[in-house]
């Protein structure tokens, strides 16, 4: 299970669901207009993310933090392979990391004309396959009051993401 700071994850989710034929289609109709406000969206969805995380970690064989993966991908992947008792091939690990880099995934998406990733291909999604993969986007997108509200309400985030 790979987890990422939900403040960033929810930013991506916001744009994914906003850029649809019917934005926020899976949410209650009476909330859809409010969900266009990114700060409201993050506050509204945070508990669902926390619940998903708490359930997922109990079922996961291995847990990797996206920040750790970005900081030292080789170490994290090698540690995972060791935990699985698979044969270590450092060259293959390095090649896998390079092959799956954000830059190469974007290049592949452009070359292959891939626009949607896991998004619906029925014409209801108007976004892009990938965004930026950068961490800390929430600092530019959200109001400081929203960030503080989320961190104070969900103390688990302080521990997991050094907030």
UniProtKB/TrEMBL annotation:
Transmembrane annotation, as ranges: none
The Sulfotransferase domain, residue ranges: 2-149
Database matches in SUPFAM superfamilies: P-loop containing nucleoside triphosphate hydrolases
A Pfam family annotated for this UniProt entry: Sulfotransfer_1
Gene3D superfamilies the record matches: P-loop containing nucleotide triphosphate hydrolases
A single GO molecular function term of this UniProt record: sulfotransferase activity
The protein's name: Sulfotransferase domain-containing protein
Organism name: marine metagenome
Organism ancestry: unclassified sequences, metagenomes, ecological metagenomes
């Amino acid at each position: 299970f790979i987890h990422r700071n939900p403040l960033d994850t929810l930013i991506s989710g916001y744009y994914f669901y906003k850029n649809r034929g019917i934005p926020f289609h899976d949410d209650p109709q009476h909330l859809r207009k409010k969900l266009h406000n990114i700060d409201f969206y993050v506050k509204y969805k945070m508990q669902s993310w926390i619940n998903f995380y708490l359930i997922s970690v109990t079922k996961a064989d291995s847990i990797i933090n996206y920040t750790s993966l970005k900081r030292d991908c080789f170490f994290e992947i090698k540690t995972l392979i060791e935990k699985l008792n698979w044969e270590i091939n450092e060259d293959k690990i390095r090649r896998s990391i390079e092959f799956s880099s954000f830059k190469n995934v974007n290049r592949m998406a452009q070359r292959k004309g891939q626009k949607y990733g896991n998004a619906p291909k029925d014409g209801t999604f108007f976004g892009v396959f990938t965004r930026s993969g950068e961490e800390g986007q929430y600092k530019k997108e959200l109001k400081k009051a929203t960030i503080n509200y989320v961190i104070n309400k969900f103390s688990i985030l302080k521990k997991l993401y050094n907030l």
